[in-house]
């Protein structure tokens, strides 16, 4: 599917709003959307959402032969998958301009800034090294993919643990996680990307642009910065008549942002390791927002397989099934089931009442008409 | 007799009737309760453990871009699904009499391999059977699935997630569908909805998808070797477990619809 086009009036409206320092989603020019990080059950798995933009990151590893030019260094591959889930114009299996740009930007920010200690990934020089692969899947594209992806990348890399290995005379032994504690990657610094959209010949700048803002902007300026307030990548796409003041202004904002984001990542990581230590439930099961009208859950349910009542009518059949659920439930799920049925009957009665009233009126009207005709 | 009076009388009778029906149901319920407690105290206590379904959690409309989306967790297996469509179709895939249904399955790590392609085909065939594709000629409906966590029964979870996303998107369907996996142990015992640890001990695994009306099989996928009798037993157990999933679908839609 092709990317939907933006109409001229939509564009003009957005530009006018921006020139009056207003944004369509009500944020200030330098307000960021909410950032949240959730870790999965496996090591190196995380989901990051920035407003409605969502990215899933997963790090995996395998043993490979190193490059001939770098015989004592491990390998790091970064792969951004623009899954069609994120937006209808993303296609699988084909490298588009935006996916190449995203990939290259992340490589510049993470790989070229040497944030991962690749030498520690060497097992036998010139023969065996660890190859770390970082996969990022775009779940929902609502603008500013690069920032979200870079946070997901850093969070996944810092969460990841590789299995411990030992070289013996017989060969290489790879220990499972249960046998020997897996080892985290050596991370020297913590780079993330911060993007700015530039409008109206460099007069207006917004941070964390939404999808529409990204497409209307004349230029997008992305800075790679780390938690130590160092620059590790600069990228400008599009063209704008901006001077050095803008670059300096953006850099200052980006540095502040990087410090807070890195602090959040560290805080979430600490919470996760605490949960892992205490052996409580974790993973994406917690990711489903519960208690909203669009969500629903049930505790573990044992099914009475052997006995089943003969089906009489649709309604009795359903009642029987729900009753056997209630019998077997271990936990507090029964209350929820009952509530839902009560709700349903309530509304059904209401609907019946509502339906009756207009009918009465109609009948009264027709009676009147009859009378008129008789007269 | 004036018509308004007749109407109110009719509704009164209807109300009474439903009340009687409820009373009958509750009697049934109690009988059933007694039966059940007998069976659990009796010889089938071992079966109970095998026939449990892992806890299910679901949220509809989790992401904003697609027309319909859902996240479904069955135990620790988590799948996110999205549906786009009916939308513009590519010329080479255009079908004049029906919608072109495409499915994409994305693993969380690495590039999609042949087993993912196989999964895609099974899910596509299942979705296509359920939806009324002939209502949307010259269009495409795409179902996209993203694996988020796998701890057994990924295919069944994906099929269920795709059904929930289709429900959320409002694409017309003939019936709903639900898939259940069961494992076959070395001594030919059947475990319904096993997790990854239990699945490792199994010599075979069977996955069935059922329709919501007649509970007929609309998809079947097996791996490993097992006797024919075990297949039939597994099918029957999965069919009964699917009732629970259809109830779950009904509950979430009821909750959704009663609040709106």
Automatic annotation (TrEMBL), chain A:
<keyword id="KW-0539">Nucleus</keyword>
<dbReference type="InterPro" id="IPR015847">
    <property type="entry name" value="ExoRNase_PH_dom2"/>
</dbReference>
<dbReference type="Pfam" id="PF03725">
    <property type="entry name" value="RNase_PH_C"/>
</dbReference>
<keyword id="KW-0698">rRNA processing</keyword>
<dbReference type="Pfam" id="PF01138">
    <property type="entry name" value="RNase_PH"/>
</dbReference>
<dbReference type="GO" id="GO:0016075">
    <property type="term" value="P:rRNA catabolic process"/>
</dbReference>
<keyword id="KW-0694">RNA-binding</keyword>
<dbReference type="InterPro" id="IPR027408">
    <property type="entry name" value="PNPase/RNase_PH_dom_sf"/>
</dbReference>
<dbReference type="InterPro" id="IPR036345">
    <property type="entry name" value="ExoRNase_PH_dom2_sf"/>
</dbReference>
<dbReference type="GO" id="GO:0071028">
    <property type="term" value="P:nuclear mRNA surveillance"/>
</dbReference>
<feature type="domain" description="Exoribonuclease phosphorolytic">
    <location>
        <begin position="32"/>
        <end position="163"/>
    </location>
</feature>
<dbReference type="GO" id="GO:0005730">
    <property type="term" value="C:nucleolus"/>
</dbReference>
<dbReference type="InterPro" id="IPR050590">
    <property type="entry name" value="Exosome_comp_Rrp42_subfam"/>
</dbReference>
<keyword id="KW-0271">Exosome</keyword>
<dbReference type="GO" id="GO:0034476">
    <property type="term" value="P:U5 snRNA 3'-end processing"/>
</dbReference>
<dbReference type="GO" id="GO:0071038">
    <property type="term" value="P:TRAMP-dependent tRNA surveillance pathway"/>
</dbReference>
<dbReference type="InterPro" id="IPR001247">
    <property type="entry name" value="ExoRNase_PH_dom1"/>
</dbReference>
<protein>
    <recommendedName>
        <fullName>Exosome complex component RRP45</fullName>
    </recommendedName>
</protein>
<dbReference type="InterPro" id="IPR033100">
    <property type="entry name" value="Rrp45"/>
</dbReference>
<dbReference type="GO" id="GO:0000467">
    <property type="term" value="P:exonucleolytic trimming to generate mature 3'-end of 5.8S rRNA from tricistronic rRNA transcript (SSU-rRNA, 5.8S rRNA, LSU-rRNA)"/>
</dbReference>
<dbReference type="GO" id="GO:0034475">
    <property type="term" value="P:U4 snRNA 3'-end processing"/>
</dbReference>
<comment type="similarity">
    <text>Belongs to the RNase PH family.</text>
</comment>
TrEMBL record, chain B:
<dbReference type="GO" id="GO:0005730">
    <property type="term" value="C:nucleolus"/>
</dbReference>
<feature type="domain" description="Exoribonuclease phosphorolytic">
    <location>
        <begin position="53"/>
        <end position="171"/>
    </location>
</feature>
<keyword id="KW-0271">Exosome</keyword>
<comment type="similarity">
    <text>Belongs to the RNase PH family.</text>
</comment>
<dbReference type="GO" id="GO:0000176">
    <property type="term" value="C:nuclear exosome (RNase complex)"/>
</dbReference>
<dbReference type="GO" id="GO:0071028">
    <property type="term" value="P:nuclear mRNA surveillance"/>
</dbReference>
<keyword id="KW-0698">rRNA processing</keyword>
<dbReference type="GO" id="GO:0016075">
    <property type="term" value="P:rRNA catabolic process"/>
</dbReference>
<protein>
    <submittedName>
        <fullName>Uncharacterized protein</fullName>
    </submittedName>
</protein>
<feature type="signal peptide">
    <location>
        <begin position="1"/>
        <end position="23"/>
    </location>
</feature>
<dbReference type="InterPro" id="IPR001247">
    <property type="entry name" value="ExoRNase_PH_dom1"/>
</dbReference>
<dbReference type="GO" id="GO:0006364">
    <property type="term" value="P:rRNA processing"/>
</dbReference>
<dbReference type="InterPro" id="IPR027408">
    <property type="entry name" value="PNPase/RNase_PH_dom_sf"/>
</dbReference>
<dbReference type="InterPro" id="IPR015847">
    <property type="entry name" value="ExoRNase_PH_dom2"/>
</dbReference>
<keyword id="KW-0539">Nucleus</keyword>
<dbReference type="GO" id="GO:0003723">
    <property type="term" value="F:RNA binding"/>
</dbReference>
<feature type="domain" description="Exoribonuclease phosphorolytic">
    <location>
        <begin position="177"/>
        <end position="236"/>
    </location>
</feature>
<dbReference type="GO" id="GO:0000177">
    <property type="term" value="C:cytoplasmic exosome (RNase complex)"/>
</dbReference>
<keyword id="KW-0732">Signal</keyword>
<dbReference type="InterPro" id="IPR036345">
    <property type="entry name" value="ExoRNase_PH_dom2_sf"/>
</dbReference>
<dbReference type="InterPro" id="IPR020568">
    <property type="entry name" value="Ribosomal_Su5_D2-typ_SF"/>
</dbReference>
<dbReference type="Pfam" id="PF03725">
    <property type="entry name" value="RNase_PH_C"/>
</dbReference>
């Amino acid at each position: 599917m092709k990317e939907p086009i933006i109409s001229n009036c939509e564009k003009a409206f957005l530009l006018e709003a921006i020139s009056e320092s207003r944004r369509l989603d009500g944020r200030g020019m330098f307000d960021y959307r909410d950032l949240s990080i959730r870790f999965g059950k496996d090591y190196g798995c995380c989901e990051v959402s920035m407003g409605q933009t969502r990215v899933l990151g997963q790090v995996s590893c395998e043993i490979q032969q190193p490059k001939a030019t770098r015989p004592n260094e491990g390998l790091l591959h970064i792969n951004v998958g623009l899954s069609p889930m994120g937006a209808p114009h993303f296609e699988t299996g084909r490298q588009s301009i935006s996916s190449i740009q995203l990939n290259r930007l992340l490589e510049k920010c993470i790989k070229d800034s040497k944030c991962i200690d690749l030498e520690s990934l060497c097992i036998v020089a010139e023969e065996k090294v660890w190859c770390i692969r970082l996969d990022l899947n775009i779940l929902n594209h609502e603008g500013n993919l690069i920032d979200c992806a870079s946070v997901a990348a850093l969070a996944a890399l810092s969460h990841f643990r590789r299995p411990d290995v030992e070289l013996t005379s017989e060969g290489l032994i790879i220990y499972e996680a249960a046998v020997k504690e897996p080892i985290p990657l050596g991370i020297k610094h913590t780079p993330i990307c911060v993007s700015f959209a530039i409008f109206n010949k460099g007069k207006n700048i917004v941070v964390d642009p939404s999808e529409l803002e990204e497409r209307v902007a004349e230029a997008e300026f992305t800075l790679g910065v780390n938690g130590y307030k160092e620059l590790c990548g600069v990228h400008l796409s599009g063209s704008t008549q901006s001077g050095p003041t803008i670059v300096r202004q953006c850099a200052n904002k980006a540095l502040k942002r990087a410090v807070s984001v890195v602090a959040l990542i560290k805080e979430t990581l600490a919470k996760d390791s605490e949960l892992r230590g205490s052996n409580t439930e974790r993973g994406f099961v917690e990711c489903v927002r519960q208690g909203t009208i669009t969500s629903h859950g049930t505790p573990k349910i044992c099914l009475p397989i052997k006995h089943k009542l003969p089906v009489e009518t649709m309604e009795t059949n359903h009642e029987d099934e729900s009753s056997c659920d209630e019998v077997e439930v271990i936990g507090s799920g029964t209350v929820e089931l009952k509530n839902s049925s009560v709700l349903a009957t309530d509304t059904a009665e209401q609907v019946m009442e509502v339906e009756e009233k207009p009918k009465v009126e109609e009948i009264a009207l027709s009676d009147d008409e009859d009378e008129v005709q008789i007269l | 007799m004036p018509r308004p009076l007749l109407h109110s009388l009719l509704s009164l009778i209807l109300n009474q009737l439903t009340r009687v029906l409820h009373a009958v149901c509750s009697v049934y319920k109690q009988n059933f309760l007694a039966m059940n407690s007998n069976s659990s105290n009796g010889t089938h206590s071992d079966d109970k453990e095998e026939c449990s379904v892992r806890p299910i959690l679901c949220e509809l409309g989790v992401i904003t871009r697609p027309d319909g989306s859902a996240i479904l967790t069955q135990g620790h297996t988590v799948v996110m699904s999205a549906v786009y469509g009916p939308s513009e179709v590519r010329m080479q895939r255009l079908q004049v009499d029906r919608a072109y249904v495409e499915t994409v399955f994305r693993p969380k790590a690495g590039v999609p391999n042949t087993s993912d392609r196989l999964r895609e085909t099974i899910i596509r065939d299942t979705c296509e059977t359920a939806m009324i594709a002939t209502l949307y000629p010259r269009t495409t409906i795409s179902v996209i699935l993203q694996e988020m966590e796998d701890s057994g029964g990924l295919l069944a979870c994906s099929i269920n997630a795709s059904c929930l996303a289709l429900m959320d998107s409002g694409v017309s369907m003939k019936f709903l569908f639900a898939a259940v996996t069961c494992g076959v142990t070395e001594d030919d015992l059947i475990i319904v909805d096993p997790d990854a640890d239990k699945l490792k001990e199994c010599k075979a695994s069977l996955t069935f998808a059922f329709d919501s009306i007649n509970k007929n099989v609309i998809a079947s996928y097996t791996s490993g070797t097992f006797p024919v009798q075990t297949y039939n037993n597994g099918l029957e157990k999965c069919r009964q477990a699917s009732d629970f999933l259809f109830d779950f679908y009904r509950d979430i839609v009821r909750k959704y619809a009663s609040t709106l």
